[in-house]
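Hi all, posting the design record for the shared folder.

TITLE: backbone redesign
STEP: 1 of 1
STRUCTURE INPUT:
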């Protein structure tokens, strides 16, 4: 691959004269971009959505097979997901690869570093992280105006929901990220934060990890009022798995038939649609507090 003017200084002493175009990712890696990248590979649906949302869709040359929003993203070259092939990545001649932390495979990153392909890694643990990532990508791509406008829209959506939920009695929620084994969301995950913003009380709030496994003993003890199942084409809880929860007849959620579904694409992707996810979540948890049409965009 032809060496480009843009380069990466990961692991190298920082040079003062490049400070205005250097960026630090969520793993502490410092990336220097001499100019805004024109050929970007996204290795996460959430990243793809952020790039398109700030108007950089035409600069995206490669995505994962799960990048299906907006529809234009499906027309981009596919580069795999968890284990992208080095040759496939390099063949697209990217001048920036943006990846989730799950991509953190040191051998592959090391090879990309050798080829002077900048890799920027994102890890969203909070809603504020998502907003920060949008701003950072905006600066990297000289699209700060678009990123700021998007961030303001998201903050307004979040504020509307939080205002709407003031005084609402929190509803005990179990978010079923995976049924067998039972995996949910805990403190340190942006979904846990969304549940709180939407007037929910996460029954896994005492967990020590962001994505803990729960025993049924804990679930029965915490007795959720709502079982929330993410559903979608690429990921989510199947209908049969949802119905299997009905055997736990002592759960308040089962007694009251409060088995609810929500789009996995909206809830599980830390991208520009988290505002939409939050509004839907608030509707599910507190349907009687429904927002008026004028409150929605």
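Okay, here is what came back for every position:
SEQUENCE:
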């Amino acid at each position: 691959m032809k060496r480009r003017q843009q380069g990466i200084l990961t692991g190298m002493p920082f040079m003062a004269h490049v400070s205005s175009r250097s960026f630090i990712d969520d793993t502490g890696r410092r990336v220097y971009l001499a100019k805004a990248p024109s050929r970007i590979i996204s290795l996460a649906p959430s990243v793809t959505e952020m790039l398109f949302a700030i108007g950089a869709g035409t600069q995206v040359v490669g995505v994962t097979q799960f990048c299906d929003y907006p529809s234009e993203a499906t027309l981009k070259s596919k580069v795999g997901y968890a284990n992208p092939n080095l040759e496939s990545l390099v063949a697209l001649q990217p001048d920036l690869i943006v990846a989730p932390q799950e991509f953190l495979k040191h051998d592959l990153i090391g090879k990309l570093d050798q080829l002077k392909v900048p890799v920027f890694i994102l890890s969203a643990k909070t809603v504020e992280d998502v907003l920060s990532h949008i701003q950072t990508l905006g600066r990297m791509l000289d699209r700060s105006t678009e990123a700021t406008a998007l961030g303001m829209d998201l903050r307004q959506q979040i504020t509307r929901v939080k205002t709407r939920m003031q005084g609402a009695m929190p509803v005990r929620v179990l978010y079923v990220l995976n049924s067998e084994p039972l995996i949910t969301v805990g403190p340190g995950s942006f979904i846990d934060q969304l549940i709180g913003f939407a007037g929910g009380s996460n029954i896994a709030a005492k967990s020590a990890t962001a994505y803990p496994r729960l025993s049924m003993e804990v679930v029965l003890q915490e007795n959720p009022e709502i079982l929330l199942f993410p559903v979608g084409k690429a990921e989510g809880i199947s209908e049969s798995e949802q119905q299997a929860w009905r055997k736990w007849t002592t759960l308040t959620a089962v007694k009251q038939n409060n088995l609810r579904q929500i789009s996995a694409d909206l809830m599980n992707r830390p991208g520009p649609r988290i505002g939409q996810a939050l509004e839907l979540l608030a509707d599910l948890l507190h349907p009687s507090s429904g927002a008026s049409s004028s409150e929605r965009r």
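COMMENT: The two ends are 45 Å apart (CA to CA).
Let me know if anyone wants the other runs.
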